[in-house]
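Ops channel
N.P.: pipeline sanity check, posting one input/output pair.
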């Protein structure tokens, strides 16, 4: 099922499977990647892990639970709670089936809202059980970047801190690298991104701007609950992913209990909100 949102400036389409944004337009210009053969997704939600766990299994109290790369939320059918011409509310709740993959009761809500010139996405994660649990949450939208233009990402701050990488198994490697920024600009060259995602481990900037020589395309703003940020693309593909993350991927080779993962603990009954705002510029 798809929900269509529209106001005077923007239109958006959200698919209930995965609560995935599949279209975002301003003035008839499509900003989102079309899920072509290079990467068959648009903007998946990452939960309850980011990256990949060793052997695609997490461990808890001696029991093994299957866990796909980036978690199961992106492949689950969310319930459409309500929708209006400018707002949609989706819900994913722990179920016996979900319990085979994540041994903790939870509720994950997504609220999409078209404001004046903005698409606002709010995640609400609630621990509905009686045990603390670790969970990572992220968003993985891919924006169109035609090859006939040179693209840069402008950060609100210079981001001098080190960056991280993942290996071919999408697990965090131990090495830390110097920041690739020149001032506040990251040149989104094929050479730089050929080595996989660039991860800003402790992001100071709460806003980034995607620009080309023809001018800015969009600005993404994130709340403090997303302290990490990744930039990724498939070599040769005409998109770039701008990914706010609440936590880092599992470390390379980690086979410990789920509580040894990077995820921060969410206490019983606690709820946490994460917000991301995308503001396209008029073409």
């Amino acid at each position: 099922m798809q929900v269509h949102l529209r106001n005077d400036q923007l239109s958006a389409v959200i698919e209930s499977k995965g609560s995935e944004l599949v279209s975002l337009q301003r003035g008839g210009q499509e900003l989102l990647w079309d899920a072509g053969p290079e990467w068959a997704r648009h903007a998946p939600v990452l939960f309850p892990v980011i990256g990949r766990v060793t052997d695609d299994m997490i461990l808890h109290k001696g029991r093994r639970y299957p866990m796909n790369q980036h978690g199961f939320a992106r492949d689950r059918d969310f319930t459409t709670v309500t929708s209006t011409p400018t707002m949609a509310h989706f819900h994913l709740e722990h179920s016996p089936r979900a319990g085979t993959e994540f041994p903790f009761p939870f509720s994950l809500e997504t609220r999409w809202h078209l404001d004046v010139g903005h698409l606002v996405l709010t995640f609400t994660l609630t621990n509905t059980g009686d045990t603390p649990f670790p969970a990572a949450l992220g968003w993985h939208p891919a924006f169109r970047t035609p090859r006939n233009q040179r693209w840069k990402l402008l950060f609100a701050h210079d981001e001098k801190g080190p960056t991280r990488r993942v290996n071919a198994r999408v697990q965090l490697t131990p090495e830390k690298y110097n920041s690739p920024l020149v001032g506040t600009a990251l040149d989104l060259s094929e050479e730089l991104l050929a080595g996989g995602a660039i991860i800003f481990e402790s992001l100071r900037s709460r806003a980034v701007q995607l620009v080309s020589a023809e001018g800015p395309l969009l600005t993404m703003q994130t709340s403090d609950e997303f302290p990490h940020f990744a930039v990724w693309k498939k070599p040769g593909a005409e998109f770039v992913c701008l990914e706010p993350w609440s936590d880092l991927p599992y470390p390379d080779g980690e086979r410990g209990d789920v509580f040894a993962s990077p995820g921060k603990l969410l206490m019983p009954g606690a709820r946490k909100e994460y917000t991301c705002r995308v503001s396209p510029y008029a073409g």
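N.P.: looks fine end to end. The radius of gyration is 18 Å.
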